[in-house]
Design brief:
Blueprint lengths: L5 E2 L9 H7 L9 H17 L5 E6 L2 H10 L7 E6 L2 H12 L3 E6 L8 H10 L4 E5 L1 E2 L4 E2 L2 H8 L6 E5 L18 E5 L10 E6 L1 H9 L10 H9 L10 H17 L1 H20 L4 E2 L10 E5 L6 H10 L2 E2 L1 E2 L8 E5 L6 H17 L8 H10 L2
Helix pairs in contact: 1-9, 2-9, 10-13, 11-12, 12-13
The structure holds pyridoxal-5'-phosphate.
The site of pyridoxal-5'-phosphate (PLP) has 12 residues, from helix 3.
């Protein structure tokens, strides 16, 4: 039998038993009244939980499809779009927008840093942008953007749609869609919700919905809000087959997030992130993201000199934990850990213990137990 491996990458994240069980339920027809009720409840609950007075779209697909959905419904060929990029996933919007024939301006930060809000304000004052995109947490750098502050700046630019990529954040970092002035936000099921990959969620506020209307017929089909709005209002109707068992699983995950509360969940993530960063620093590792813009959902961790990335990560797997490689210029020099969703202190102890042993196996001078101890101490009783 395969031995189980704890998945501590920035998505998919560990899927707890009660959510797994929903995945394994007997299939239902999408028109079955029991499923229709479950889907409608999920749509409404997700809208309420994240305070979006517009429409909420939990549909089959991944985060990348949600990125396309965001752009498809708010822009038309020839529009100007401002992309605020704190790493790889910020940059992903460049190609999506260019393929659609948009004029793209990019504000990019050094990896580990965050584009200053003042720079965004200045850029928006220069010309008229149909939309601005910001990753709440960029998964390549583990940098968190000040999305509430950016939302305040956007109030000065009523013709610009504020798009937030929440894929590695929503359900971990705190967010309030209407309250923060976000016009469109999205995430994927496999990150801080702790569900298997396969569902995306888009929250579209009133301003984004009005923009969609103003666009008339758009070239895209599956991701068109106008195709999905009748289904989101009444899921007994058909447009494209819902991911039935993922809807079951998302319902359980959403129940868990709501029960914990968004603020409490963020506080838990933040405390855990602070503790793990501190613990890893005690054994010679360093954190890519600068203090003040470190995400609570994942970390990008730089190796001490002499540690071989491939050997470290394969040793981690033999120790029963998988972590992710770093991207871009940090490939081979750093690794990434997810610490989001329905994870426990025990998962973290297992992760940190495996990191200690794997570093030691790679020749780093690690005192076994030092990081685990520092983590436990920082978490308190
Ligand atoms: C994972 C991720 C994506 C892409 O999502 P997929 O589900 O892999 O398509 C986009 N943006 C961010 C910030 C992510 O972390």
């Amino acid at each position: 039998m395969d031995k189980s491996v704890l998945v501590m990458i920035p998505g998919p994240t560990p899927v707890i038993k009660s959510i797994q069980e929903q995945m394994g339920r007997e299939i239902q027809a999408f028109g079955d009244p029991r499923f229709v009720k479950c889907y409608k409840t999920l749509i409404d609950d997700l809208g309420k939980l994240f305070n979006c007075s517009g429409k909420t779209f939990p549909i089959a697909g991944t985060g990348t499809l949600a990125m396309e959905m965001a752009i498809a419904n708010t822009t038309k060929r020839g529009d100007n779009v401002l992309i605020v990029s704190n790493g790889f996933f910020g940059d992903r919007f460049i190609e999506i927008c260019e393929r659609k024939g948009l004029n793209v301006d990019v504000l990019a930060a050094e990896w580990g840093e965050c584009v200053p809000v003042g720079d965004i304000d200045k850029k928006l004052a220069e010309k008229s942008y149909a939309a601005v995109t910001v990753s709440h947490v960029d998964t390549s750098t583990a940098v968190v953007a000040p999305i509430a502050e950016i939302g305040k700046v956007l109030k000065k630019y009523p013709d610009t749609i504020y798009i937030v990529d929440g894929v590695a954040a929503t359900g971990g970092e705190f967010v309030d869609v209407d309250g923060m002035g976000i016009d469109l936000m999205f995430t994927g099921s496999q990150k801080a919700f702790g569900v298997c990959p396969g569902i995306l969620i888009v929250w579209a506020g009133q301003k984004a919905l009005a923009r969609r209307k103003a666009l008339g017929t758009i070239p895209e089909y599956y991701v068109d809000f106008e195709k999905w709005i009748p289904i989101m209002d009444d899921p007994s109707k058909y447009f494209a087959t819902p991911a039935v068992n993922l809807v079951f699983a998302m319902s359980e995950a959403t129940r868990i997030v709501a029960e914990e509360g968004l603020a409490a969940r963020h506080e838990r993530h933040n405390k855990n992130a602070t503790a793990v960063r501190k613990a890893l620093e005690t054994i010679g590792l360093s954190i890519l993201a600068k203090p003040g813009c470190q995400a609570s959902t994942l970390s990008n961790v730089i190796y001490p000199a002499g540690v071989d990335d491939a050997k470290f990560r394969s040793t981690m797997i033999s120790e029963g934990v998988v972590v992710a490689g770093a991207l871009g210029a940090y490939a081979g020099k750093a690794f990434r850990i997810g610490h989001m969703g329905n994870i426990t202190v025990n998962d973290m102890v297992q992760l940190i213990g495996a990191i200690e042993r794997s570093l030691a196996a790679c020749g780093a001078p690690v005192k076994l137990g030092a990081a685990v101890g520092a983590y436990m101490e920082a978490m308190g009783s």
